[in-house]
TrEMBL record:
<dbReference type="GO" id="GO:0005524">
    <property type="term" value="F:ATP binding"/>
</dbReference>
<keyword id="KW-0143">Chaperone</keyword>
<feature type="region of interest" description="Disordered">
    <location>
        <begin position="1"/>
        <end position="25"/>
    </location>
</feature>
<dbReference type="GO" id="GO:0016887">
    <property type="term" value="F:ATP hydrolysis activity"/>
</dbReference>
<protein>
    <submittedName>
        <fullName>Thermosome subunit alpha</fullName>
    </submittedName>
</protein>
<dbReference type="InterPro" id="IPR002423">
    <property type="entry name" value="Cpn60/GroEL/TCP-1"/>
</dbReference>
<keyword id="KW-0547">Nucleotide-binding</keyword>
<dbReference type="GO" id="GO:0140662">
    <property type="term" value="F:ATP-dependent protein folding chaperone"/>
</dbReference>
<comment type="similarity">
    <text>Belongs to the TCP-1 chaperonin family.</text>
</comment>
<dbReference type="InterPro" id="IPR002194">
    <property type="entry name" value="Chaperonin_TCP-1_CS"/>
</dbReference>
<dbReference type="Pfam" id="PF00118">
    <property type="entry name" value="Cpn60_TCP1"/>
</dbReference>
<dbReference type="GO" id="GO:0051082">
    <property type="term" value="F:unfolded protein binding"/>
</dbReference>
<keyword id="KW-0067">ATP-binding</keyword>
<dbReference type="InterPro" id="IPR027409">
    <property type="entry name" value="GroEL-like_apical_dom_sf"/>
</dbReference>
<dbReference type="InterPro" id="IPR054827">
    <property type="entry name" value="thermosome_alpha"/>
</dbReference>
<dbReference type="InterPro" id="IPR027410">
    <property type="entry name" value="TCP-1-like_intermed_sf"/>
</dbReference>
<dbReference type="InterPro" id="IPR017998">
    <property type="entry name" value="Chaperone_TCP-1"/>
</dbReference>
Length: 513
């Protein structure tokens, strides 16, 4: 009797566990060398020849063509980490892989998967306790936030601009969109444009739009413009029912044409009468309307829905459903609007808007690869500064938090009964992979460095691996300005543990043909 399709494949028991764990470990190993300030880059080449050069874990795993379902779970760990806190993706993926490796050894010793899962979740709770205990009790002022931003950029490509200057830009951007409820991260945009060095990167208090006016005779520069946004085409209205019109002579044709022209002229005059200087339209603008607007010194742009939200946050405008519904109260304003040309591209700058709730980091670079990596670096930095402000402060970086977590878990493991204690201790051993990998990537002997880290932690209460010259040293990361948000560490251990336990519990893989 056939229950499954005869072409289906089924793997059970230890074979299934081994296959899944091996796949997960392989993905984890693929990003391990990118961890830390001296981590290496990966070059990813697509089928179409597109090249991505980065050491960002989430980008690497997203670009990889991963087919194995267990391996995809590790990729999802990095994706979750990126979505939730914006950084620590490599940390989460490496930890998930090491948790799987430790679980494999326990399975070989006949420890039941459920026992491993229970032990891992017990250890996860201890890890959160340790992270909370090591959190710095300091005010999150601009200097501290800049330190967090610089730490997230360490080892990543920033072109010829220093991490210090970028960190200042990032903190400035975050502060401008901060209110009593927290940081409105969606109001910060990173806009990239090739053609200049990375040092030309700057913060724009407003919105950048990748469009030019719809008519060549429209002005391209305004001071204190009144700005409107219409959510519909500005064209001749179409009938809502199917109808045919019989034109029997030239006079009828001229009348129909005149009616259309009057309709379009009415739209344009309505905009002009309201005192609009700049009109943004989520749709098309008829040529006749554009010509009349240009004659009256009004600039019109065809944009999308996303730009409408950004403009509303920046200028305080209200989006009108159609041009006829547009009223004076719907208008917003800005300090200036200008259209600039970069190579073959036009960019419109809407700056110093009255609402002042949107800012843009205008990132420059000599090549597309540089700007792409700079965009990722800035995005991560903006996310970690936001996470530090909104989600619980900061902890020491450079592996110091992981050493504290592993030590705390081991000290608490003695109170865990039965074989579950083995899984708790294995979790602590897995956490050690992070400082060990940092040491290895920095040029230190990983075993010796781990021993020295533990000894320094026992005597001083804090110890991390600091990159220095061609190697690394054991020192206090707080004094040397290496800090990470609490949320990054919490999310990394959480997502890694969830992925590892999910994979460990699978003992049957059924795949359709």
């Amino acid at each position: 009797m056939f229950i499954l399709n005869e072409d289906s494949e089924r793997t059970q028991g230890k074979d299934a566990q081994s296959s899944n764990i091996t796949a997960g470990k392989a993905v984890s190993e693929s990003v391990r060398t990118t961890l830390g300030p001296r981590g290496m880059d990966k070059m990813l080449v697509s089928d179409g020849g597109d090249v991505v050069i980065t050491n960002d874990g989430a980008t690497i795993l997203d670009e990889m063509d991963i087919e194995h379902p267990a391996a995809q779970m590790i990729s999802e760990v990095a994706e979750t980490q990126e979505v939730e806190v914006g950084d620590g993706t490599t940390t989460a993926a490496v930890l998930a892989g090491e948790l799987l490796s430790q679980a494999e050894d326990l399975l070989d010793d006949d420890v039941h998967p459920t026992t491993i899962v229970e032990g891992y979740y017990a250890a996860l709770s201890m890890a959160h306790e340790a992270i909370d205990e090591i959190k710095l009790d300091e005010e999150l002022d601009d200097d501290l936030l800049e330190t967090v931003a610089r730490s997230s950029m360490t080892g990543k490509g920033t072109g010829d601009v220093s991490a210090e200057r970028l960190a200042e830009t990032v903190v400035d951007a975050v502060r401008r969109v901060e209110n009593d409820a927290g940081v409105v991260r969606d109001n910060i945009t990173v806009y990239t444009q090739t053609g200049s060095s990375s040092s030309a990167t700057r913060l724009v208090d407003g919105v950048l739009i990748d469009e030019e006016p719809v008519h060549d005779n429209m002005p391209t520069s305004f001071e204190d413009p009144q700005i409107a946004f219409v959510n519909d085409d500005i064209e001749v209205r179409e009938a809502s029912i199917d109808a045919e019109y019989n034109v029997s002579n030239v006079d009828d044709l001229n009348t129909a044409i005149e009616a259309e022209e009057n309709e379009l002229r009415g739209y344009a005059e309505h905009v002009v009468d309201l005192g609009v200087d700049v009109l943004f339209v989520d749709g098309d603008v008829a040529d006749q309307v554009a010509a009349i607007l240009a004659k009256n010194g009004v600039a019109a742009f065809e944009v999308g829905d996303d730009e409408g939200d950004e403009l509303a946050h920046a200028t305080g405008l209200s989006r009108a459903a159609g041009v006829q519904e547009l009223e004076a109260d719907d208008l917003g304003s800005a300090g200036s609007l200008s259209v600039e040309k970069f190579g073959d591209n036009y960019v419109t700058f809407v700056e110093d808007g009255d609402a002042g709730q949107s800012v843009t980091v205008f990132a420059r670079g000599g090549t597309e690869h540089v700007t792409d990596e700079l965009e990722r670096v800035l995005g991560d930095a903006l996310d970690v500064v936001t996470a530090a402000l909104d989600q619980g402060g900061v902890v020491p970086g450079a592996g110091a938090t992981e050493i504290a977590v592993a030590d705390h878990i081991r000290s608490e493991a003695a109170g865990v009964e039965g074989r579950k204690q083995l899984a708790v201790e294995a979790f602590a051993d897995a956490v050690d992979v992070l400082p060990r990998t940092l040491a290895e990537n920095t040029g230190m002997d990983p075993i010796d460095a781990l021993v020295d880290l533990r000894a320094e932690y026992e005597s001083e209460g804090i110890a991390g691996i600091i990159s220095e010259g061609q190697t690394g040293v054991i020192d206090d990361p707080v004094e040397l300005g290496v800090l990470d948000p609490v949320a990054v560490k919490d999310e990394a251990v959480e997502s890694a543990a969830e992925a590892a336990t999910m994979i460990v519990r699978i003992d049957d893989v059924i795949s359709a043909s």
